[in-house]
């Protein structure tokens, strides 16, 4: 039956993973992390189809010493995974509630993340990604500044400071870059991008007319790639990094 097939599949995966771990001395977290970037090292091919299983299992696998203990662990996990499935379309739809009338004028306006050095981030978001600085807000008493970025025509930006602020706060899907003064002087990275343990925030996404043309230009500009368009199993989309290491997906609407 379906449950047995899922159990058998996950058991095979876990047992093969155990063999890889023991025979090749490959730490499982490394395989999973490289997989998320679309680059699979030799010996980790089995991870390609079960990335989420690897993320769940690898901390425990690293603490197990013998083949038998890992096999026992794999059997237990296979049972659990056989019963673990995502939401059906029907369940997802049932969980969604009708919007309350009070939310009629709500608007998704901004995503905020912290940046280390605006002298690096501003040229990237404008010159590389083509965004416009909508407004800059300074808070000297708290020693930080906000830079609101978005895809708006620079000619549409109001000249009056008060009007510019009001206008910027009504634009859709902006990025709020927050700079805490002084972080630019730190030698090491200051912020966590969410794509290594403990995982959390993932990425923002930029819709482009031609992914390959966009990535060719990014490559010429020296942008760091997490995944190029033809890397990994998902073709035609890419991930790049901003100066702080935050991931940015580059995609076309018909690819995702």
From TrEMBL:
Co-factor(s): Zn(2+)
PROSITE patterns, sorted: GLYOXALASE_I_1, GLYOXALASE_I_2, VOC
InterPro entries: Glyas_Bleomycin-R_OHBP_Dase, Glyas_Fos-R_dOase_dom, Glyoxalase_1, Glyoxalase_1_CS, VOC_core
Catalysis: reaction(s): (R)-S-lactoylglutathione = methylglyoxal + glutathione
Residues holding Zn(2+): 110, 176, 203, 249
Keywords linked to the UniProt accession: Lyase, Metal-binding, Zinc
GO MF term set: lactoylglutathione lyase activity; metal ion binding
Pfam family, one: Glyoxalase
Annotated metabolic or biological route of this protein: Secondary metabolite metabolism; methylglyoxal degradation; (R)-lactate from methylglyoxal: step 1/2
Active-site residue numbers: 249
Annotated EC: 4.4.1.5
Co-factor note (free text): Binds 1 zinc ion per subunit. In the homodimer, two zinc ions are bound between subunits.
Residue ranges of every copy of the VOC domain listed in the record: 107-253
Function comment: Catalyzes the conversion of hemimercaptal, formed from methylglyoxal and glutathione, to S-lactoylglutathione.
Similarity field: Belongs to the glyoxalase I family.
Name under which the protein is recorded: Lactoylglutathione lyase
Origin species: Bactrocera latifrons (Malaysian fruit fly)
Name of the encoding gene: Glo1_1
